[in-house]
Design goal:
The protein is α+β, with helices and mostly antiparallel strands and 154 residues long. It has one domain. The protein is built from three helices and nine strands, in the order αββββββααβββ. The strands form two sheets. The chain has a five-stranded mixed β-sheet with strand order 1-5-2-8-9, with no helix packed on it.
Length: 154
């Protein structure tokens, strides 16, 4: 029974969403850091509007894909490397290899302020620009985690 409980606990921990701490030392209060959600919710169509996921911040891996939900960053300017999650015709023809060739991650720079929450936003322009949208200090923190996100509440 103890082994079964230990296995169950391990599975729960493996499925948990965690935050990325983008600075050294102990975790600072939310009033001293900025919080950046590292993903966008699914859209109505992956063919027309891509989902986004931050893979690197300031050149360092931003946690594990699928488990890291948001980042705590010191105020100032940061560089974000973003991967697009979108289905295009070449994905259907040759899959992951074509995606790796044609859908290379893009980088952008943005400044963040302490005590504020930021979300990734795709600007549907001719360049496919990505920016950080400032949601202020009262944003519902449960909306940072993919498993707790609901379109109605967030």
């Amino acid at each position: 029974m103890k082994k079964l409980f230990a296995l169950f606990t391990l599975l729960l921990v493996a499925c948990a969403e965690v935050a990325y701490q983008g600075y050294a030392g102990t975790l600072k209060p939310e009033t001293e850091v900025a919080i950046v959600r590292l993903w966008t919710p699914s859209t109505t169509s992956l063919f027309t509007s891509p989902g986004l996921r931050v893979g690197r911040i300031d050149g360092l891996p931003a946690g594990d894909a699928g488990t890291t939900s948001h980042a705590y960053l010191l105020p100032g300017e940061h560089e974000f490397e973003v991967s697009f999650i979108q289905i295009k015709a070449y994905n259907l023809l040759c899959g992951a290899l074509c995606d790796a060739i044609f859908n290379k991650p893009r980088t952008f720079r943005a400044s963040v302020q302490p005590g504020r929450v930021y979300l990734l936003k795709y600007v549907n322009d001719d360049k496919g620009t990505v920016v950080l949208e400032d949601k202020g200090s009262n944003y519902d923190k449960s909306c940072l985690k993919a498993r707790e996100y609901t379109k109605e509440r967030c």
